[in-house]
Amino acid sequence: MTWTSLLPVWARALETRRPRPLFIDPFADRFLAAYAGELGTLPQLGVETSPLWEAVFYGVTMRTAYFDAALRRSSAPQIVVLGAGLDTRAYRLGLAPGVTVYEVDRATTLDFKERVLAGEQPTCRRVPVVAELGADDLTGLLKSAGFDHRLPTVWLAEALLFYLTPAQAEALLEEMSGLSAPGSVLLGEVFERPYRETDLPVEAMDDADAATWRQFVTAFRTSPSVPVPAAWLAAHGWTAVEVTDQVGLGRTFGREAPSFYERARDWIFEGRS
HSE-up of 122 (CA within 13 Å, CB side)? Predict the structure, then answer.
C-alpha cells in the first residue's frame, strides 16, 4: 500500500473538520495517524497553496457526498464496494443490520484497515473479500464469501474504473451486470478522457507537486475514455438514471469547482440493471 491510498482519507479528514461538512468520517484521522506510524510520514498536503491538492480534495469530497447519499437511500440487501480501500461506510452510514457490505480489495489494504478499526463495530454485516480486480475471479470469490446473485445489489466503483484498461473496465461492467438481479444499482465514476499534463498549471506548482501530478498523468494514461456515459453503460447492460460531473456536483452541494474540472471531466453516474 502506497501513500496514494491515503489521499481519499486525507480529503475526508479535511472535510470532516470543516464547520459545515458535507459528511463526517470519524475514522479518517485515525487512518492517517496509523499510516504515518507504520509506513513513514505522510507528505504535507496543502489545499490552499496547491492547484493539485485543491483539485484532489474537491474531487474526493464531491464524490463521497454523492455516493453516501445514494447508499443511504438504497434498500438493496447487498452492497459490493469494489477497490474498497479505506472506505468506512459500513461503520459510518448507519446501514441496517440486514445489509451485507462486501469490501473487495488487496489483502494488504484490508489487513491495514482491520488493524486500525480493531474494536469498532459496523452497523451492518461486513465481509472483506481479497481480490485483485481485473485479474482474479471476482464472481467466484464473491460467491464463496456468501454473495447471492439472486438479490438486488448496489455496486460501488468509486475511484476504480480509471485505474483499469478499457478492456478491463468493460469486462467488469459486464460481469457485474451478469451478477445483478433486477433492481440492482451501479454507482461509479469514469473520465471523459485520460488526464493531460496541461490540465493543471504545472508552472504554478513546486517541484514535488509537479512530479506528483506527472505521476497521476502517467498512472491514468490507459484509462477508459468515455465521452457519453449513458451509451457506454447501455452497451454493457446498464441503464443510466443519473449522469453528472464534478462541476454539477459542486452546484448541488454549494461548492465552487476548481477550474481543473472544466478541462478534465470526471463523470459520476448511477445505472440500473
Answer: 20
The residue range of the domain holding 237 is 74-272
d(CA 246, CA 255): 10
Q: What is the mean pLDDT of each run of 10 residues along the chain (273 residues)?
A: 76 93 96 72 62 93 98 97 96 98 96 95 98 91 98 97 94 96 97 97 90 92 97 96 98 96 97 96
- Three cell numbers at 147? 454473495
CB-based burial label for 199 (10 Å; 0-12, 13-18, 19+): buried
CA of 67: how far to CAs of 72, 137, 157, 194, in Å?
Answer: 9, 26, 10, 22
Q: At 169, which CATH number?
A: 3.40.50.150
Within a domain: 1:
no
Which residue's entry shows cell 488526464?
Answer: 195
Number of domains in the chain: 1
Determine which helix (DSSP H) or strand (DSSP E) holds 87, and give its type and residue range.
none
Alpha-carbon distance 155 to 138, whole Å? 13
Residue 229 near residue 190 (C-beta atoms within 8 A):
yes
Q: How far apart are CA 76 and CA 239, in angstroms?
A: 17
pLDDT score of 208? 84
Contact call for residues 84 and 51 (beta carbons, < 8 A): no
What whole-number distance in Å separates Cα of residue 15 and Cα of residue 222? 30
**Its pTM surpasses 0.85:** yes
Given phi > 0 = left and psi -120 to 50 = alpha, else beta, which region is 146? left
User: Residue 259: which region, alpha, beta or left (left: phi > 0; alpha: psi -120 to 50)?
Assistant: alpha
Q: What is the DSSP string of 241-264?
A: EEEEEHHHHHHHHT-PPPTHHHHS
